[in-house]
Amino acid sequence: MQDQSKGFRGRVKEFLKSSSLTEEIVGYQTQIQGVCSKLKLMAIVETNFKVNEIHAIVTAPSFAMVKAVQNINNCPPPSRIFQGRQAILDKMHQFFATDSGNQHIYVLYGLGGAGKTQIALKFIEQSSFSNVFLVDTSKVETIDTGLKGIAVSKSVGNSAQDALMWLQSSDDKWLLFFDNSDDPKINLNDFLPRCNHGNIIITSRNPELRSYGAHTLVSDMEEADAITLLLKRANKESSEENLKLATGIVKELCYLPLAIIQAGAFISKSEDLKGYLALYHSNRARLLSEKAAQSHDDYAQTVFTTWQISFNQLSYLAATLLQLCSFLHYTGISEDMFSTASKYEPWSWSPPREELQEPLEFLSHFVQPTGEWNSLKFLDVTNEIKAYSLISFDAKVRLVSIHPLVHAWSRSTLLDETPLQSCMSSILGMCIIEIPDNERELASVQLIPHLVLLKSVNCDGVADFRRAFWEIYYHTGKFKDAQAIAEQVLEKSKFLFGDEHPHTLSAMGILATAYYKLGELQKAKELEVLVLEKRTKLLGEDHPYTLLAMGNLAGTYSTLGELQKAMELKVLVLEKHTKLLGEDHPDTLWAMENLARTYYTLEELQKAMELEVLVLEKRTKILGEDHPDTLWATENLARTYYGLEEFQKAEELEVPVLEKRRKLLAVDHPDTLRAMVNLAGTHYTLGDLNKALSLQVELLQKRRQLLGDKHPDTILAMKNLVKTYQKLGKQEEMEELEQLIEDTKRLL
């Protein structure tokens, strides 16, 4: 029944409001007269009409009236502080403006909190569709409700099917906005109008929805837009100081819109832009979970809660994989790491399988009954996580990457980090053990970011893979870390096995190697002499471990200038390797190369060159041009050519060595830096001073960063650069660097 309490005037106002009359009615005299007639009729029968009878009068046929009712837009406006995204908006406008003769569907997909809905709302605000219908597609129930609402609003029925039928038959320029199409279990195709006209925008976290039409990945904001958004939400002016502070904040928040808005809301309340970053570092989870009291849009979730909703939909296996990956670096997470670990067979010094129940149990989900790795299963699990944009997975190279903020959040889903941290530490260690020797150096470059972040080399009470982790630190030139681990391994080995056990001697050997790389040659020599004595006594002179110890000590003798001792040992090692292993064996080639180095040091360059040419030929044939051992042989031969004053030949070898090392290894890897030294020296000698200068400046920067000003290699880099400055007539730069050298020497 009608509500009699409002009075006739009030009900007339309600009628006018509900009829959605627009200015378009003005000027249509006959239609206005018709409306007045209906109002008079309402006055006469007001006490008797039911609501549906009034509705029948209101919707009486009239072109202007019908046109007014059809102009529906149930979308809220975009946020008042909407910022940027112009490239995406331009792309959308161009797409919908094109008359293709087909239905226009545009998908905005990406991580929760990236701003997909706001971009769609901004586009709608800028457009002129006759009807815009917003449908919440997060659940089947909300889709059904939304479509029913369209049917009712158009007076074509009260079911979802009625709405779809109307959309299919309507010639109006309508737009259907399917928001939050995140559930991968919902087949959105069931709810799309079956026609060749109309316009649809879909927002989703699921990248699989790209198949519906044109699409854009909505990711992080441009820095300038992110800064403006932060300052707007924080109610701060764009002063020079505020811009600088805001730059640091948005960078820390990885330019994610929702995180920036939350930060701005907090700053607006606290009035402390300067202190926000320090507070954020110590309270990240709380700040990214806290909803502002005053919001500029209807989004009800915070950064962390929006991801938690997605996380709660994951299976146990998918959730565990995501949590394990949170202990690794957020990029370059390789499927190979897990598949290689699944093949783990213990070495004499590595943990037995009995100590690795948790990692082995997790990996078993991806292993077939035959023992083969099940890549399809791994792909299924990663696709499950990817469906919510919590990770990206490149199926071609089998690499997982995670948004840095998601990476930080995923660890917050754990009440106790220790079990899964230990599990991931063990998986990494198991992987390292199974990497073939000839792939270890390149694999180390890929694994070192994960090991650095994991920081699990000192886990007591869990499987101990420190010896394996030493390999990664050593091969990536992090010799101080390698030394620290080797000292721990040696101490533990002495305690468990005694001074003469093979594990203890191996630990002494790796510690000596670290000392050698750090320039602590006397310490290296003392340990290597001890190892050689004990191995000769326990294993005999021809044992591979004894020959290894012999070769290491010979190298240290060479560096210390004890060349006769070095020569005697190296000749002996080469003879035994050739006899026991053959001329093409990798150990024989190393022995040959080591002897060539001693010839070089003794200035017997022709002998050195003959051996080095042979080594390079064999390694190129056996290992290929890009293998680290081949590059090492190339570098040594180039050095000998330089010594023989065949500078052009040296340069021809050194240029590709540096190019390949930059590509295959890190820019600050010791081997890359050494290649820079060599090529810069050759450029200088050939008179290519600008080329030499460019390399020397870069080299000095890296040396200072990695070794500090006092290290001999840093001082040598300074001296070489001084010479080049002098040759180029750069007096001011030369004097400044000379002063730095003098200041550094006084501190030594």
Automatic annotation (TrEMBL):
Return the protein name: P-loop containing nucleoside triphosphate hydrolase protein
Which of UniProt's keywords are assigned here?
Hydrolase
Q: Which Gene3D superfamilies match?
A: P-loop containing nucleotide triphosphate hydrolases, Tetratricopeptide repeat domain
Species: Mycena metata
Establish whether keyword Hydrolase is in the entry: yes
Q: Name one Pfam family in it.
A: TPR_12
Cross-referenced InterPro entries: NLR-like, P-loop_NTPase, TPR-like_helical_dom_sf
Q: Name one GO molecular function term.
A: hydrolase activity
**Sorted alphabetically, which SUPFAM superfamilies does this protein's record hold?**
P-loop containing nucleoside triphosphate hydrolases (SSF52540), TPR-like (SSF48452)
